[in-house]
Amino acid sequence: MVYDSKKRLIALFPAAPDPKNNKEIVSHPGISYGGLIHKESLKGAAILDVLERILEFYKRDGYSKLLYKVMPHIYHKKPCEDEQYALFRLGAQRYRCDLSASIFLDSRGKVSERRRRALNKARKANLTVDFDNGVLPEYWNILSQNLEQRHGAKPVHSLDEIVHLSDHFEDSIRLVSVRENNQMVAGVLLFETEIVSHAQYIAASKRGFELSALDMVFYECIRRAQSNDKRYFDFGISNEHDGAVLNAGLYQYKVEYGAGGVIHDFYELNL
Questions:
Q1: How would you classify the pairing of strands 65-69 and 260-270?
Q2: What are the residues whose beta carbons fall under 8 Å from the beta carbon of 212, sequence distance 6 or more?
């Protein structure tokens, strides 16, 4: 927590030691992006001053390096990239860059013919759409099977964790799923801010893929984001190996919905 000369709180800096190296501090190892949280009055030289104080704090605490995940610009309520300038002034080096695909809802890119055909196929299957977090256990089973079969991995959140989060932030976390008859076949878990609807978990059963059910899911997600006056719909990154590899097929799939590229920058500062 950063205070000004009148003892007023002016900024927060979420951070924790890197689980792989406790001599390095990360903002933040447990979330997609970090950086300063502050009121819009903190700009220019003031942000530079705040970051200098933060660096000195962690230096005194014995850390050797600060890793800084910059908040992508689409998540700012107003233009606010002063911290990138401050990072440059402080000698920060970019060590990673991820590429996300996002739709600017006021000026959406062209939807590909392939996505249009897939949506028509899903519509003909007479799928029904749910916006119900109460079926998270059923969806988590599909998601877990997907990740295990395709990547030998598990969801970052356990079922208990995601249910706990959705209970406490019911306006910010929403499951959108589709069913064939009474059987769930696909879904997306949305994490939402005032201006962005972000797809965090995406999954479909074998039958869901056959029906192009995810095209129906994304159609409803994007329509919902527009009706709720969101500015962006964010599909998330398509990178592997700390940004060094782009899953080109996955990125192209997202772009075909009318999305464009948004970068996630990572910087390091030696202390």
A1: antiparallel
A2: 118, 119, 121, 122
Look up residue 179 and give its amino acid: R
Q: What is the pLDDT of residues 217-247, one digit of tens each?
A: 999 999 999 999 999 999 999 988 888 999 9
Do 264 and 98 form a contact (C-beta atoms < 8 A)? yes
How do residues 183-225 score in pLDDT, each as one tens digit? 999 999 999 999 999 999 999 999 999 999 999 999 999 999 9
What pTM, to 2 d.p., does this model score? 0.91
Tokens of 1: 């927590």
User: Are 132 and 83 members of one domain?
Assistant: no
Same domain, yes or no, for 91 and 192? Answer: no
- Domain-embedded: residue 177: yes
Please, what's the b/e burial string for 8-30 (b: 16 or more CB within 10 A of its CB; e: otherwise)?
Answer: eebbebbbeeeeeeeebbbbbbe
Residue pointed to by tokens 């001053």 = 49
